[in-house]
Structures
1.
Amino acid sequence: MPPDTNRRRFLGLAAAMGVLPVAGCDQDAVNAEVTATLDSAETLTRAAQRLFISRTSLAPEFTEADIAPSFRPNGSVSPREHGYKAFAKTKFADWKLRVEGLVEKPLDLSLADLRAMPARTQITRHDCVEGWSAIGKWTGAPLAPILDLAKPANTAKYVVFHCFDAPDYDSGDDDGSELSSDLKPDLYYESIDLIDARHPQTILAYELNGAPLPVSNGAPLRVRVERQLGYKMAKYIKSVELIADYSKIAGGNGGFWEDRGYEWYAGI
Ligand SMILES: Nc1nc2c(c(=O)[nH]1)N[C@H]1C(S)=C(S)[C@@H](COP(=O)(O)O)O[C@H]1N2
Ligand SMILES: [Mo]
């Protein structure tokens, strides 16, 4: 690059921003430089906008007639860990969702608190990497207003869902039955970024097909992240943690299946 090119580019930008008089410069060269700079800025903006639009666009929603007669449960179907069974016995009356981490106001929300918040119902298709799909009707509390209540710090980049269960993934029909088994049984967890966390279809679901979420599908609360594959949709949520990076959680890849080789961003 000729030595004066950077200076010219700076002058061009500065002139475009109206902070420098252009008198004394080679007017045509400055104009060309300004045009080129603005063009490339626009190209960048457009690319960023396209990316943003595709990250925020809605997943298809279906009608009541499309709902599968029974929604196949997969992975863990009956957690035994951390007093889950005791919570289940009282229909989760004593369970509370903890919202913590990089937040100004940690929260403890009961099922009644969550049901009292604005609700969203959506009929969507769930796609599992194992090659099956099912359409179900989910009702729950959108995650965005819950985050607003907790007030995430500026440093928060991801939302982690910590679950009750340690999937018995080596047994028979569970996900990844042929994957390596030398990892110790970890608790299920998943993470999404704040764009997905604030997506309008990202809800903490407490109902499936108009009835309380069955234990096999993740009672009392499971997340729906409709633009991604099934393994992102953590069931049996114990807590939600706001974090800056996930490299220090479990295997460091942002999720139970990610630690076993799956993609962190499982877009459909
Ligand atoms: N806590 C927890 N969440 C989980 C799993 C699991 O084993 N434990 N399995 C995942 C996978 S691979 C899929 S396909 C869906 C299955 O949801 P379902 O049981 O409602 O069909 O939950 C996901 N979330
Ligand atoms: Mo799955």
2.
Amino acid sequence: MAGCSKWFLVCLVLCLVGLVIVLVINDASIDVMQRTVTSHRKNFGRYSKDAILPRLSSMLRGSKTAAELEDGEKTSINGSFFRSTLEGILDNDFSQAPELSIPQMVIEERKYRHDDQFEKYLKCPTTVRKKMLDNPNIRSKFVSDIPILMWDKHFNASEFRRLTKFRAINGWKDMNYTDIRGMVGQLNSPSNQYMFDDRLQKGQVPSNDCTTCAVIGNGGILNGSGKGAEIDAHDYVFRVNAAITKGFEKDVGKRTSFYCFCMHSLHNTLAKRRKTGFEIPKDDENLRYLFFAKSEWTYTYLDAALSGKPLPASTGKYHRGPPAFPKQLTADNVKVLHPDFERYLKWSWVNSSAQHKDIHRPTTGAIMLLAALHTCDQVSIYGFAGSYADYSEYYYDKTFSKHVNYANHDYNSENKLWQFLDEQGIVNLYHRTPKEGK
Ligand SMILES: *[C@@H]1O[C@H](CO)[C@@H](O)[C@H](O)[C@H]1NC(C)=O
Ligand SMILES: *[C@@H]1O[C@H](CO)[C@@H](O)[C@H](O)[C@H]1NC(C)=O
Ligand SMILES: *[C@@H]1O[C@H](CO)[C@@H](O)[C@H](O)[C@H]1NC(C)=O
Ligand SMILES: *[C@@H]1O[C@H](CO)[C@@H](O)[C@H](O)[C@H]1NC(C)=O
Ligand SMILES: *[C@@H]1O[C@H](CO)[C@@H](O)[C@H](O)[C@H]1NC(C)=O
């Protein structure tokens, strides 16, 4: 009887140890271990790869510390290298974060990393960000040191684990780390770090540099507005989705400095191209493509586009073919918003009764507008917040088309926000009475 329970205990312990091994040493870290050991063979002294792997594994399980190994096994092994390798491997644990319950998610989604890139956006003495920090009604919404753009420094194992808690656009849940590393690692130009890279001097933002921006929504309020020249007079013009300028120059202008989209909105926009005449903007010399990483497709697509590999279609239920850009995409003309910025917009800026739902997120137009508000020094808004009864959905509509609400967006709260920012003197919102100009 006693012997039986002893064996039972031994089994139990072995099972638990096995479980811990499975949990801690997942495929990714074994893969990294193999590669590390192979590429640094000489630092492991007389040990063969086969001998070193179990030792690393046992250290990963915590059964031996690096120090114990160093002192206890006086061999030709290089202890300090061994320890730093181990730390490297621990930081190379690309396992996915565990599933969170909705209440936990609500808490976790509101934790953001702080980033010093905001300092680049505070050089202008009259910048809108200083106004927001001074305004008691807005200060509480505005996190000045939120990461805005994403580039190579933002990818490592701990960031991967942190961000796989959240579904894309808010993070990297269920995504392949190879694809993310491939894309983010190629965002290695100074252009990826600063919205207005054409102003950088020797990689630095000039002091007292102030930028004016026009942010153009596609609302029917622009039809017959005659605002084209005024829009084009800004330093930068932001446009989104079916931003058709050809034939509408008088109302919407002709310049595009930032073309904003997510892969799915771009696909839908291009699908209607025959009807609308839309083409991806290409003519402006300093044109930049601003990607909102709404799905893994952004990562697989950009990874391939930036390294010259064949472009992938979207995966999953909807099979969408890869869009062709009219210009070669390079680290210099591509920018990607950081997932923390997207979560922060959802929680801080676009308040909605649907906020706690997984699918809720600001519209592509709202993301563009808020990205401009966090980077430009002066922001003028056109084509947003027009009355849906008085104006057709889009300025380029040929016949009146009614506004459609989608469940993942909250149009009313967005429109109220633009009105509020205008009233507070933060942005200039283009208003109009329906009969004006006739
Ligand atoms: C151990 O490895 C480290 C890092 O590669 C190296 O700097 C150090 O010189 C090595 N020490 C010995 C005794 O080989
Ligand atoms: C991972 O990247 C983040 C963001 O850039 C950084 O803050 C953190 O220190 C990095 N971690 C390691 C272990 O390098
Ligand atoms: C991740 O993608 C890479 C290449 O794109 C592929 O080789 C690998 O098998 C994928 N891993 C998983 C877990 O799907
Ligand atoms: C969001 O809306 C709720 C009510 O729906 C309100 O209690 C809360 O104060 C609002 N938050 C912000 C940041 O406006
Ligand atoms: C655009 O404005 C013109 C008048 O300026 C009007 O005739 C036309 O119906 C408008 N288009 C739509 C789709 O509402």
